[in-house]
Amino acid sequence: MTVLNKLKPRFWDYVDAAAGPFGHLFNFRRIWQLAILLTLGVTLVPLVSITAVDYRVTQKSMESEIALRTSRMVSNTRRAVSFFLEERRAALDFIVRDNSFEALNDPERLASVLANLKSAFGGFTDLGVIDPLGYQRSYAGPYKLEGVDYSGQAWYREVLDRGIHISDVFLGFRQVPHLIIAVKHDVGTGSHFVLRATLDTERFNHLIAHPEIAGGGDAFLINGEGKLQTPSLMHGKVLDPIPLPVPAFSTNTELIEMEDKQRQRNVVGYAYIEGTPFILMIVKNKEDLMRPWYKTRLQLMGFLAVSVTIILVVILGVATYLVNKIYLADQKRLTMLHQVEYSNKMATIGRLAAGVAQLTDLTRFFSGFRSGVTLGGGLLMVLFGLLLLKVLPFSLLSLPSFGPHSFWRKLFFPLFESRRLVSRLALGLAAGFLPCMLSWALVIQAATTQNPLRGFFTTTLFGLGTVPVLFLAGLSASFLSLKTRLYGERVAAVSVMVMGFILIFKGSKYFV
């Protein structure tokens, strides 16, 4: 026997062949299946629904937390970069307002200002003063840039138009990545000059670097063309184009999702830094950010799997137990019905046996009664025959009387010794009560008609059927002589006696 057969419930292969059109009521496998399905539906649907809702809610919560942290980091970094640039722009604006064009053209004075800027703010590399024609009249820094013509540069034209210019990172004459901040100052004579400062990109890069960025994140600046302005951990070096599209302009901090060339989903937070060509971007790998939630998801799925397994085992066990109990109760019911049916059969047989016994007793009673009547009738017929032959005188039948004649003589002599027709009728009626089988057969036939009218007509027709024979016998007697009639009476008496002996013989068989 296999393990499957051992686990199979008793009712699994049961088929009630006698159920007929109500077979579905005794299909215990179907009852078991319906109980399993309904109970599983009632228990698992809420559990799975709650788990799905919790799954979705925790996922959304995790994504919202990631978005909030990324947006906060972008906003803080943008403020730091803006403050860094605005602080140095304000310092340059203060310098041009506090010093005249002639004072700044003094190399010693300009070098002193540069030293003060480095010590106070840091990040400055050099300073240059540019006259209205675009030539750099004075320069303080590590390079030989006096007399350089900037009149053809785009940044110079922009600073003349707007009064200030913050460039993106570029190589320039020195072929080293750097950025410049230039401010224009108008003098009272209608002339102007430009103070140009070069900022150290190392200090600038330090503002963007965030070692605490989670999820394999990367923070960097790009310009409007999508070129890196600061080094990137994953997207290249300074001035390399990034493999991501340039995000759309927005005055606020934005958060989007996009795929890189490796088809990985990234959470990108960005912000345009106002007054500069820079776009701050913080890129985080979504899979790395969602890894804590994935761990929670595995725990949730494990809890769901364990719960479903326990529920399934309990439901299977309980349903199998209950249906098995119903099956056993039904089998007991069938057994009891069989026992009741057998008891009814035995009771019916007992009643039939009792009825047969009663019929037998009744038959025996009527048989004994009939035999007694037959025996008595035979004795009477022999007695009547002897009386008719005048072998026995009627005086033997006399009883003590209260008058001159006995009781029997008064009663029977007029009937049996008279030759009148009335005496003959009385004798015939008396003979009718004798046990004649033909007469009794007609009586039984009349009784079995179960209809009084039909029984009456049956006996009446039988009596009428005997009338012609008796009439002819009586009619023919008038043509016979007296001697012949007396001889006939003797023959009749002998015949009656013979019939009486026959009846005595038949009646005595029951008592032998």
Q: What features would you describe in this structure?
A:
With 512 residues, this protein is an alpha+beta fold. The chain folds into three domains: 123 residues, PAS domain (Beta-Lactamase, 2-Layer Sandwich); 87 residues, 2-Layer Sandwich (Beta-Lactamase), CATH 3.30.450; 150 residues, no CATH class. It contains 13 helices and nine strands. A five-stranded antiparallel beta sheet has the order 2-1-5-4-3. A hairpin with a 6-residue loop joins strand 8 and strand 9. Helix 11 runs antiparallel to helix 12. The two termini are 74 Å apart. About 1% of the residues have low confidence.
The SS-based structural class is alpha+beta
Strand content: 5-15%
Shape call = rod-shaped
Order of helices and strands: HHHHEEHEEEHEEEEHHHHHHH
- Spans where pLDDT lies below 50 across 5 or more residues: 401-405
Mean pLDDT: 80
Biggest beta sheet attributes: 5 strands, antiparallel
- Summarize the amount of helix as a percent range: 55-70%
Distance between the termini: 74 Å
Which sequence of strands runs across the widest sheet? 2-1-5-4-3
Number of strands: 9
Number of domains: 3
Number of helices: 13
The whole-angstrom Rg is: 71 Å
Summarize the structure.
The protein has helices at about 5, 30-100, 100-105, 105-120, 155-160, 200-210, 285-290, 290-390, 405-415, 420-430, 435-445, 450-475, 480-510; strands spanning about 125-130, 135-140, 165, 180-185, 190-200, 220, 255-260, 265-270, 280-285. The protein is α+β, with helices and mostly antiparallel strands.
